Amino acid sequence: MQNDDDRQSSANIPGGSPAEPAPVASPDAAVSPPSPPARPSNWSGKTIFWLGLGSIVLAFFAAIGSGWGLWNYQFGFQLLKIAFGIAVLAVAGGLFLGWWARRKSRVAARPLRWTGMVLGGGLALWLLSFAYTERTVPAIHDISTDLADPPQFRMLEVRADNLDQIPGDKEPEMKGMNPQQRWAAIHQKGYGDIRSVRIASPVAEVIAKAERLAKVRGWDIVVADPVEGRLEATDTSRFFRFKDDVVVRVRPTEDGMGSIVDMRSISRDGVSDLGANAKRVRSFLADLAGTNPAG
Q1: Could you say which of 77, 170, 222, 241 has the lowest number of CB atoms within 10 Å?
Q2: Which CATH number fits domain 142-289: 3.50.50.60, 3.30.70.60, 1.10.520.20, 3.30.310.80?
Q3: CA 132 to chain centre
Q4: What does the alpha-carbon distance between residue 293 and residue 99 come to, in Å, rounded to a whole number?
Q5: Mapping DSSP to helix (H, G, I), strand (E, B) and coil, where does residue 190 land?
Q6: 262 - beta bridge partners?
Q7: 227-257 burial by CB neighbour count: b if 16+ within 10 A, else e?
Q8: Is the pTM of this model over 0.90?
């Protein structure tokens, strides 16, 4: 009988019982597969996206609510200011987060972030264009081709405070002027090109054409009288639903063969019309006289 030493020796002797080999780990089993990289957090991109989209939604909500009469236009303008601030925050925040991600060598979630920045930037630029226009046009809302004898409304009423907030009362060149005189001076300086128009057609034909043009523009016509030579209508803006009243006065020329056309456009709300009434008068008279290629 072999003892333990003999059995140990026989494992190393040819012909003896070989010892069981120790298991060897395969190279593949020794190295565990790498775990997939963690996906970068998208919270920053989502935040900027919702800020940009939210600014547009708020601006749209402000305009529609004012147009539907849910609140007055002054509150709607306050909402627009808030929307502008959110839009600027979306742009500034997106730029900062992009810079921070590059500094920390992190992967920035670009698609949503850039989408939010574009939305916010577009709204901010659009609102800034109105602020720029407000600074470049006269702060009046009553535009007429005849300053000495403006066309008068008969069916529609001129707002009670039409001349209450005419600027210039503290300017040296307008010192001593009453509101009517200041309005005429500001109007002449800012809109000197808006004047009476002569058309080689009789009064009735001119009024008929004016009525057609008003209908094409979607104005609400109150009266179109070819005998008196008068048209009164109301133009309503798309979103805020601002209403501007229009009167067209047509009188015969000295020989009775042609017509002298005057027009007046007044905003029912606000101090400055951002040039909307002047633009309306220019475009309408150009189409009426046949001098507007697009008319």
Answers
A1: 170
A2: 3.30.310.80
A3: 13
A4: 50
A5: helix
A6: 249
A7: eebbbbbebeeeebebebbbbbbbeeeeeee
A8: no
